[in-house]
Structures are given as C-alpha cells and as structure tokens.
Design brief:
With 228 residues, the chain is an alpha+beta fold. It has two domains: 6-141, CBS-domain (Roll), CATH 3.10.580.10; 144-214, Histidine-containing Protein, Chain: A. Helix content is 35%, strand content 21%. A three-stranded mixed sheet has the order 5-6-7, with helices on one face. Helix 3 crosses helix 4 (77-83). The longest helix is centred in the C-terminal third of the chain and has 16 residues, at 146-161. The radius of gyration is 25 Å and the shape is elongated. It starts with 5 loop residues before the first helix and ends in a 14-residue tail after the last strand.
C-alpha cells in the first residue's frame, strides 16, 4: 500500500522573504503572488519563521481608532511588540515549524492540527527550504476517485498484503466511504483488513459488515497473567 507524501503534494517554487524585508514589501509579496503567508529564510535558505496576513493585520489592529470610539486593542506583550515591527524579523511567527518531504499526509495533518497551523514549510535533510504544504494540499487526497480506492483495496490489500482472493470480500466505495461485506476465515483477517482500509489515501470511513468463521483472537480478562 502506497501513501502520497508531502513531497508529492507540496508547492515548489516558494515565495521567500528575508529577515530585513520591509513591511510594505511583505504586503506586496503576499498580494502579488496571491498567497497568505511567506517563509522568512536565512542566508543558507533555512526557514526562520513565517509571516502571514494575520501578522501584518496585527499592525492595523493595534492602531488608534480614527473616530475614537474603540478602546485600545488588548494584546499580549509579545503581540504588542510585534505589532510595531517593520520587517520580516520582527513580524514573523518563529521558530518555523517544518515538515519533511517523505512524511505522509497523516504526519503533516497531525502536526498542523496540534499546532493550529495552516501551512508548513518543507525542508530537506540540510534544513533548506524546498517547498510549502498547506491544508488544501493535504485535502487533495480526498479528491481521489472511488474506483482507484476500490482497486487498491482489492489488489494491494486483499491480494498482496493479506494473500486473499480479491473476490473474497465485497468492496463498495461511494464518495470515499468504504463498505466491506462477506465472510473471512479468521477474525484477525477481518480486523486487519478494516484497519488497513482506514489508512488508504482518500478513504473517509469504513463500514465493516464482514463476518468470520473462526475467532482466533484471544482476549484475556484484565489483570490476568499467563503462566510460565
């Protein structure tokens, strides 16, 4: 079973900024390239941080209300300092949280979700910037055709991985939702197939309607220790 990697999904030819790139030039970079953030890199092209629209907008949010009706913006001391920054070094969110090109979608998605990030710079073994991957890039795996998902389950999982005849299990895929039906010889085969199907790129859910002839999974009561 083959998973698409970050390296396959990332955008290359990344727009970069430097620590000394001025505020207005950063705004122009975002607008001119139709992006919402740019990595800030050092002299060796290693990401130091990321400047996003939100970082630039903080400057406006910290300003005085022209008509004097709004109270001063409530900001942490760190955000207050960044709101007065005038270049990439002061504006960027740092340190840069990066991904590697060999990562799976799951690895990158968990990092994004855990850190509440919208994008990750992608770096090579030397830490140099080679691309950027966004939430939208990762979600492209869910555009995969149902027919391709079904064929992978039948041939890669059933035949090659579990050494079963492809027609031993009924496999239906609709909008990424997989339904498995039929009867397998062992319960362990059933559980393995369901687990593997959940890991196939593009699968949204797995409906297990399988049966088994032999329960070969022994579950010991809690606290019971096998003798020796």
């Amino acid at each position: 079973m083959r998973h698409r990697t970050v390296g396959e999904l990332m955008t290359t030819g990344v727009v970069r900024a430097r620590p000394d790139t001025p505020f207005k030039e950063l705004a122009r970079l975002l607008e001119r390239n139709d992006v919402t953030a740019v990595p800030v890199v050092d002299d060796e092209d290693r990401p130091l941080g990321v400047v996003s629209e939100a970082d630039l907008l903080r400057h406006a949010a910290a300003g005085e209300d022209p008509v004097g009706l709004l109270p001063p913006a409530r900001m942490s001391p760190r955000d207050r300092a960044r709101s007065t920054a005038v270049d990439g070094r002061g504006l960027m969110t740092s340190p840069a949280v990066c991904a590697r090109p060999e990562w799976t979608v799951v690895e990158a998605a968990r990092l994004m979700d855990g850190r509440r990030l919208k994008r990750l710079p992608v770096v090579d073994e030397a830490g140099r910037l080679i691309g950027i991957v966004s939430r939208g890039d990762l979600l492209r795996v869910y555009l995969r055709q149902d027919r391709a998902i079904r064929e992978e389950i039948r041939h890669d999982l059933l035949q090659r991985t579990l050494s079963l005849w492809p027609d031993a299990v009924g496999v239906r895929v609709e909008d990424g939702r997989v339904t498995l039906s039929g009867t397998l010889e062992r319960r362990s085969q059933q559980q393995a197939l369901v687990r593997l199907c959940r890991g196939v790129d593009g699968v949204v859910s797995v409906d297990d309607r399988l049966g088994h002839r032999v329960d070969d999974i022994v579950v010991r009561p809690a606290g019971q220790v096998s003798g020796g």
